[in-house]
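[Q] Does anyone have a clean structure-token version of this?
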Amino acid sequence: MKLSQIIPVSGIVAGTLLPCMAWTGPAADLGYPQVMDLLTETQGNPTQVRPRLVGKTVSATLVAGKNSLWVVSPDDGVYFACAASAPGFKGGPVVAKVIQYEAPDNGEGGEPHLTLDRCSN
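[A] Here you go.
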């Protein structure tokens, strides 16, 4: 845990306002807009994307997509898979590490697929 991941909050105990600390989770290296910028800049080329994306922590708000994959927006054509998921995970905000990047050719060009280490919120 890093100090930057702890934020001060307050709580009321027996009518007295007491300060306490709360865990905010891992910080993201990249937000989804930055991931999209990287994919656009490199045209999704795996040899250019992998060194800049795999191993990085990304934040995105996932919704159900096609074939058991997740998307942020169906129109983007970027798909996410989860190597592991929290019980009952049904999408929503995620901060996770990218462990794999592929761009399978669908006949019209590669569709970016990012595999996240764990999906939970």
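[Q] Thanks! Anything notable?
[A] The radius of gyration is 17 Å.
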